[in-house]
Amino acid sequence: MTEKVIATEQIVGDGVCLRGQLVDEATRCSHYYSDVDVIAIKFRCCRTYYPCYKCHEELAGHEIQRWARAELEEAKTPVILCGQCHREWNFMEYAASPEMKCQHCGVQFNPKCSLHYDIYFDI
């Protein structure tokens, strides 16, 4: 895996816009690029997917707004994008996987992403 940025914006899946310091087409970025770093988070403030908060800070031009618990529990808004199959998930679907795997394609997600929940989600 390389840290070299290949794009700062990509259209993936069914026309989903992904922004960040992207190093491949699987949502990895220059900040997080291990084999399991294959999710992107839709930021509440701009409704745009970024691989991580650092990419958002560098490119968005505004401060992060966290998703409220009530918004996440409504389970209507997709907020997680699988980098492998580009399927969108709401937070409850994503968090329901005890193995931290995509429920559609089976790719392993990074369990350490949960260490950053407080940046993205008010839970």
Automatic annotation (TrEMBL):
Q: Which UniProt keywords apply?
A: Metal-binding, Zinc, Zinc-finger
Instruction: Give the GO cellular component terms, alphabetically.
Output: mitochondrial intermembrane space
Protein name, per record: CHY-type domain-containing protein
Which Pfam families does this chain map to?
A: zf-CHY
* GO MF: zinc ion binding
Please list the residue ranges annotated as the CHY-type domain: 22-107
Tell me which domain of life the UniProt entry assigns to the organism this sequence originates from.
Eukaryota
Give me any GO biological process, just one: protein import into mitochondrial intermembrane space
